[in-house]
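Onboarding guide, step 5: your first structure request.
Type a short instruction followed by the sequence, for example:

Predict the 3D structure of this protein.
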Amino acid sequence: MPLPETLRFSTERLLVVPVSEEHIADLLAVNGDDQVTRFLPYASWQSHDDGLAWLARMRALAESGSARQLVIALRETGQAIGTLLLFRHDEGSRRI
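The system replies with structure tokens like these:
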């Protein structure tokens, strides 16, 4: 079963919303830092275009129904401060 298209929730301080192009500028500050991305499966972003290429990959995952990329933003300002990727649970891949 595919993941829901619109996943949104909030806390007192944070918003978690689907990623969109409006988040790319904020995420460039995060994903452009080699210390932040050193364990990620892609190189640090060097430009806005790198962010757009990443967004295209995340949209392709969403369209396949296998994952959803979400943004963690400050509730007060809406500034994106990070991301999280939800994967579809596959019972056959479960490990104890």
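Each response can be followed by summary notes, for example: The chain is about 30% helix and 25% strand.
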